[in-house]
Design goal:
The protein is mainly α and 223 residues long. The chain folds into 2 domains: 90 residues; 82 residues, no CATH class. It is built from 9 helices and 2 strands. Strand 1 and strand 2 form a beta hairpin. Helix 5 crosses helix 6. It is globular. The N and C termini lie far apart (46 Å).
C-alpha cells in the first residue's frame, strides 16, 4: 500500500503529465488543421476526448481519496475520545467537540499539493486563500498590472512558486475555473466579471478577492 504522504505527489505528477499531453496534442492538432489534414484531425480529437475522460476520472479519484482520508481521521478521533479520561491538561470527555478536535488535528496535516485546500468541520472543503486562487490572482496581476502576455504571466508565476511545469498554473486558470484559455484571456480584461466568478468559486475568500482585485492600474492589454 502506498503511504499517505506519497499519494499527493503522485496525483500532482499525474495531473501535470496529463496537462503536458493535452498541450502537445492541441499543438499537433492545430498544425494538422493548418495543413488541412482533416482525417488526422478527427483522430486527434478522439485522443483528446480519451485524455479528458481519464483526467475526469482521476479528479474523481482524487476527491474520493480526500474523502477517505477525512473519514479515517474522524474515526481515529472518535476512538480516542471513547477512551479519554479526565486528566491534567486535558478537557474532560464531552467538553471538547469533535469539530474542535478535528480542526486542531488538521492544523498539523500537510495541505494537498494539488489544490492546497483545508478540510475542516466534518470535511467541508474551504479554499481559505487556496493556491488555486492565489495563482489565478498572481497571473491576473502580471497581465493586468504589469502588462505581461498570458504565456509570460503563467511562466513567471510558475517560476516564482518553484513549479516544475507552467501547465500547473495554466490548469488553475482554466480547468479549475471551468474555463478554456481563450475564455480566461477574455475574462482578464473584464475585472468585475473575473471578480464575480472568483467569488462564486471561492465564497469564503470574498474579502481577499475584492482587496486583491482593487488595483486601478492597467498598462496594456497584451494577451
Amino acid at each position: 500500500m502506498v503511504k499517505n504522504d506519497r499519494v499527493l505527489p503522485i496525483f500532482e505528477m499525474l495531473f501535470n503529465e496529463l496537462e503536458a499531453i493535452i498541450l502537445e496534442i492541441n499543438q499537433h492538432g492545430a498544425q494538422l488543421l493548418m495543413d488541412e489534414k482533416y482525417s488526422e484531425v478527427r483522430q486527434i480529437i478522439a485522443k483528446v476526448e480519451t485524455v479528458f475522460s481519464f483526467r475526469a476520472k482521476l479528479s474523481d479519484l482524487y476527491d474520493e481519496w480526500l474523502r477517505i482520508e477525512e473519514i479515517s481521521i474522524q474515526s481515529q478521533i472518535i476512538r480516542e475520545k471513547s477512551e479519554r479520561e479526565t486528566s491534567s491538561g486535558m478537557l474532560p470527555f464531552g467538553q471538547c467537540t469533535l469539530t474542535e478536535d478535528f480542526d486542531q488535528r488538521f492544523d498539523h496535516v500537510d495541505k494537498p499539493n494539488y489544490q492546497q485546500s483545508q478540510i475542516i468541520n466534518y470535511g467541508t472543503i474551504l479554499s481559505t486563500n487556496s493556491v488555486t486562487l492565489e495563482q489565478v490572482i498572481d497571473v491576473w496581476k502580471e497581465i493586468y498590472e504589469n502588462g505581461r502576455s498570458y504565456n509570460e504571466a503563467i511562466e513567471i508565476v510558475a517560476s516564482r512558486r518553484d513549479l516544475k511545469s507552467i501547465h500547473t498554473v495554466a490548469d488553475k486558470c482554466t480547468r479549475q475555473l471551468g474555463l478554456n484559455t481563450p475564455e480566461f484571456k477574455k475574462l482578464i480584461k473584464e475585472k468585475e466579471k473575473l471578480k464575480n466568478l472568483l467569488i462564486r468559486k471561492f465564497p469564503s475568500d470574498e474579502r481577499y478577492i475584492i482587496e486583491e482585485l482593487s488595483s486601478k492600474k492597467l498598462e496594456r492589454g497584451n494577451l
